[in-house]
Amino acid sequence: MHLKDLYAKYYFDQNYNCAETMIRAGNEYYDLGMNDSDMIAFGGFGGGIQSGNTCGTVLASVGILSKKYIETRAHDSADIRPVTIALMRKFNAKYGSVLCKDIKPQSFNPEFRCKNTIETACDILEQVIEEYEASRG
Fold this sequence. Notes:
Elements: H1 7-13, H2 18-29, H3 36-40, H4 46-52, H5 56-69, H6 80-95, H7 100-107, H8 115-136
C-alpha cells in the first residue's frame, strides 16, 4: 500500500480540499495520531491558502513531516530542515514552483479537480521520507 491509495476516500467520498485530504491521508498512512481537531487546522491551506499561493498539498506535506520529525519544537529537530528542503526541491523540480497558481494550470482537471496534484504530492512525500530514512541509516 502507498500513501496515494488512501486519498480518494477523503477527496472524493468526503469532499475535503487538497490540504485536508493530504493531511488526513498522511495521518492515516504514517499513523501520526492526529485527531479531527488537529486536521481541521489545515482546511484554510486549500487552494493555495485560498489565494493561489503555496499549494495546499505542499503545506499539508510539511505538516506531515513536522508531526513525524518534530518532538517538541523545530529548533530541536535535526531532521525537519533537511527533509523539508528535499520536499520543496522535488515539488519545484516537478512543477517549477510550489505555488497553487503555477501548479494548477499544469495538473488541474475540471472533472477531477486537483486529483493529479494530490497524487503527485503523495508520491513526492513518500519518496522524500523513504530517501531521508535510508540516508539516516
